[in-house]
Amino acid sequence: EAGVTQSPTHLIKTRGQQVTLRCSPISGHTSVYWYQQALGLGLQFLLWYDEGEERNRGNFPPRFSGRQFPNYSSELNVNALELEDSALYLCASSWGTRGNTIYFGEGSWLTVV
Amino acid sequence: GDSVTQMEGPVTLSEEAFLTINCTYTATGYPSLFWYVQYPGEGLQLLLKATKADDKGSNKGFEATYRKETTSFHLEKGSVQVSDSAVYFCALSTPPSGSARQLTFGSGTQLTVLP
Questions:
Q1: Separation between Cα atoms, residue A99 and residue A74, nearest integer Å
Q2: With contact defined as beta carbons under 8 Å apart, do A27 and A38 qualify?
Q3: Is the separation of the CB atoms in A112 and A24 below 8 Å?
Q4: Contacts of B6 in chain A (CB under 8 A)
Q5: Which end of chain B is more exposed for a tag (fewer CB within 10 A), N or C?
Q6: Do A33 and B43 touch (CB under 8 A)?
């Protein structure tokens, strides 16, 4: 069974540009989570989607946004990139809101120059 | 709010040494507790979990027991290997209660095992 898959694995963007990261959850999982792992800052919760709706949002500015599609896949969009957005962006999924185990993908490495 | 406090790293051990990484938590309600591992250049992998008090999670020789009385979930392994070198994260998840459904992570502990 395939795990959580993310794309792209690595990308480099210029400050001010926009980026879209994609995530496919484990088959049957309806909840998708996004986390940012920036150097020295640990893992910070970004967004949680379930059944197509945004359920919770971490302490990030509005230029971080996303959506979940009917097939439960998800996109994370970051506008007006800043240097400090350079990080590993991890997507995770779980079985709805009752699934208490969250499984992570390999992540997308974003470098902003 | 919920929080997880992990033993500061880095930790360096010789192969076959005993490992303990301390983790304590603060949470409302009855959280589930997890240990995740991150190998160099990779994402997070679930190592083990426990969902209620006195549960013991175990995997790949690692163990952790959910201690409600001490609000702890320490990770142990009797004999570490070079391949165990990674960053270990303790995390908790509170039950679905409206909008609060996410993992809260500790800061991570870097483990290096020398041959």
A1: 18
A2: no
A3: no
A4: none
A5: C
A6: no
What mean pLDDT do residues A58-63 have?
Answer: 94
A35 CB neighbours in chain B (<8 A) are 103
pLDDT in tens, A33-51: 999 999 877 889 999 999 9
User: Is the per-residue pLDDT at A61 higher than 70?
Assistant: yes
Determine, for residues B108 and A106 on separate chains, whether the beta-carbon distance falls below 8 Å: no
Q: How many residues does chain A have?
A: 113
Do residues A20 and A86 touch, judged by C-beta distance below 8 A? no
Quick one: tokens of B8?
């500061």
A→B contacts (Cβ < 8 Å), by residue, are 6, 31, 33, 35, 42-43, 45, 48, 50, 55-56, 58, 88, 90, 92, 97-98, 100-107
Contacts of B89 by beta carbon, 8 Å cutoff, 6+ apart: A43, B6, B35, B36, B37, B38, B44, B105, B106, B108, B109
Report the gap between the CA of B57 and the closest CA in chain A (Å). 13
Instruction: Specify whether the CB–CB gap between B19 and B13 falls below 8 A.
Output: yes
